[in-house]
Amino acid sequence: MSTSPLSRRTVLAGTAAAAALTATPALQGRTHAAERAARLPAGTYRWRTAVIGGTGFVTGVLFHPTVRGLAYARTDIGGAYRWDDRTARWTPLTDHLGWDDWNLLGVEAIAVDPAHPDRVYLALGTYAQSWAGNGAVLRSEDRGATWARSDLTVKLGANEDGRGTGERLLVDPRDSDTLWLGTRHDGLLRSTDRGATWKAADTFPAAPNATGQGVTLLVAAGRTLYAGWGDADGTTATANLFRTADGTTWEPVPGQPAGTAAKVPVRAAYDRHTRELYLTYANAPGPNGQSDGSVHKLATATGKWTEVTPVKPGGTTEDGSADSFGYGGAAVDARRPGTVVVSTNNRWAAVDTLYRTTDGGRTWTSLKDSAVFDVSETPYLKWGEAAPKFGWWIQALAVDPYDSRHIVYGTGATLYGTRDLKRWAPQIRGLEETAVRQLISPPTGEAHLLSGLGDIGVMYHERLTASPSRGMATNPVFGSATGLAQAALKPSYVVRAGWGDHGNGAFSRDGGRTWAPFAAQPAIAKDAPGPIAANADGSVLLWSFVHWDGTRYPAHRSADNGATWTEVPTFPKGATPVADPADPAAFYAYDTDAGTLLASTDGGRTFTARATGLPAGDTQFKVVAAPGRSGDLWLSAKWNGLYRSTDGGAGFQKVDSCWASYTLGFGKAADGADFPAIYMVGSTETITAVHRSDDGAKTWVRINDDAHQWGWTGEVITGDPRIHGRVYLATNGRGIQYGEPV
């Protein structure tokens, strides 16, 4: 779903710089600092990413064929990255895309120009649905440092089925000014001016449709181009692979494989030494839904096809489970003829693997069988178990053209790399793709940050510069977190909720370091876990329930730490419970259907309506309570504006210093200020941005800049109660961004 994330290398460099300043005379250091501050705008911030390490689906990885150590990666919702082998880290390339361009954070395809090493192209567009905007192509002459943009008239689908196929974008090997783009619903497009303008390739024979996969891959074999087609029916009557030798006339490739196992071409790689094109196939585009697949190679000089499938899907595992899967990634070794690596995909029973051949596919070796993993840098990859899996959703795969033993493959959570074909570790520094759902900055304790995340549950960030040492919260392990709350007057007590197979709620008495499941939970919790709140002293819990399809259910209350639960009929179904930070008897809820604020003064047993006639009709409207005060409530109602109540929701006044507010949070007050610092994602002028106010929302200063926007950032924001100016911002695919004044 970026900024230059902080790495250990950066920390060490920063420490050295600080030591150098300390070594100078104190007066001189203060003078230089003052001079620098005087030259900087009031809202100047340094933005970094809280390190977790990956956490999302890496859908493509591509080494540059003519530049040692240069590679690019793409993600389904979190933008694109460039790899620097010298620093061993990824640099984000699309953080400049802002609020209105949220749909462009998904990268459908990447292309590089072998003849011009500094050129790189991105095809952007997260969803191809009617409610999403059109796609765009970004083109760069400096490896992604700067971009020119061409808006398309078609939609792309980087977070839809088939997002791991590809690449769908290709520089024509005969002419660097010509590019080809395969779309899902609009056929094949062609540009003759390096991606500035695009037209349909009318001679391409396959007919697109509104719901299909369209062109799944484009690959050059010498001067001939091949295009995979994802909408064939698997019979010999419909082709799924086409070629052109002149860029004008396209034809089906004769003799191509057919059948369920070869229905959808997923990936392709060309061995220029043997002049053989390798293709992986599946019965569905993936990453989910594949149960059959195969691998074939085409001798491009003779037209001979040979099936070289390492293992045919369809057997049974030791426990009797069906060993169904498809094939995904494909990569050739540019230095060794006949050396190829392919991946299985959607192989849940026997677990996915990479197969490697050194004899053109006659024999294969499973690299999983000898793999030794070191995930100490990103401990969450164990998923609460003793050891990590080899991976899943493996469709991104590449072999370094300058190092035959350097293989990289993507999973649904990370990129793994090896330099010796045996020892594997995440090759993920700098790439952060988390979709963030909840953030808490505790007032005390080791960690300045707790997070609730999509797919990887809850984390305790004892450091911002390293992945949490405990990994994801366990006992129980969650997939996506749906709720995270801390008792304001007893910060050691924290509760969480989320999707899990062994319980959906848990509590911590040590600030989130360790957890225990609730002794009981309402029956609906398994199918519809929602947001949860703890009252100010941690003696009462309110848990709301919302199914993934949006269906809302009655909230439940517990006064015994989750041992028993009772329904709260007067609480608006599906609403987010908000605890008063100073009064243990008070809770609040905002009925977004009616535009009504409800309150409880009896510890959440009953709720009654207070203010009415407020903005309604959007479940993303949010109420937050100012810390250390009773009844000081702030309502972010998107483009309807920001509202404040100082009487527990009896009345609200509109804050006229901004015209849109999407999410709001609080942090330590500025020196001399009598109100906490307020942080907001909203609009005071024309654009949606991140703002801070140190005077109770009378005035605002923008604290992000045009290079640091991260698409949609409307989920949650919070300041640090111990450090004035520090703010934590949730993104939808670029992890947790945190900023501090320069």
UniProtKB/TrEMBL annotation:
InterPro entries: TAT_signal, WD40/YVTN_repeat-like_dom_sf, Xyloglucanase_GH74. SUPFAM superfamilies: Oligoxyloglucan reducing end-specific cellobiohydrolase. The keyword Hydrolase applies. Keywords: Carbohydrate metabolism, Glycosidase, Hydrolase, Polysaccharide degradation, Signal. The keyword Transferase does not apply. It comes from the Bacteria. Belongs to the glycosyl hydrolase 74 family. This is WD40/YVTN/BNR-like repeat-containing protein. It comes from Streptomyces galilaeus. The lineage of its organism: Bacteria, Bacillati, Actinomycetota, Actinomycetes, Kitasatosporales.
